[in-house]
Automatic annotation (TrEMBL):
GO terms for molecular function: catalytic activity. Gene3D superfamilies: HIT-like (3.30.428.10). This is Unannotated protein. Residues 5-113 form the HIT domain. SUPFAM superfamilies: HIT-like. Pfam families: HIT (PF01230). Transmembrane segments: none annotated. It comes from freshwater metagenome.
Amino acid sequence: MSDCLFCRIVAGEIPADVVLRTDEMVAFRDISPQAPVHVLVIPVEHHANVAELSAKAPQLTAKLLDAAAAVAAQEGLGDQFRLVFNTGAEVGQSVFHVHGHVLGGRDFTWPPG
Ligand code: 5GP
Ligand code: ZN
């Protein structure tokens, strides 16, 4: 999908700080990080959101979760990370190529501390 921002990142048409790449997955740093570690993990194959991905490609969904955990470990977060899939414009999804936000490196508990 040439009009999809993340397909264009996969294709190398738009530069990104890639931290992990396999035949099926790409992970790159978010351009506007909300935490010390903020990496987006996406499948190479285009699906609009995580619901569509899990319905149409369950094995790829499992691989995406594995890749997210691998990124967290690689980034030094161990098993302490937040994984977010915004699904739908009303909850803030702005890029309609499924992506997991791997977030960590700060306190996410509420109230903080
Ligand atoms: P969403 O709001 O759809 O869940 O997340 C989209 C994310 O993509 C946002 O956190 C935004 O900062 C990030 N983003 C948007 N455009 C680019 C870009 O060109 N490069 C990178 N690395 N991240 C982007
Ligand atoms: Zn795409």
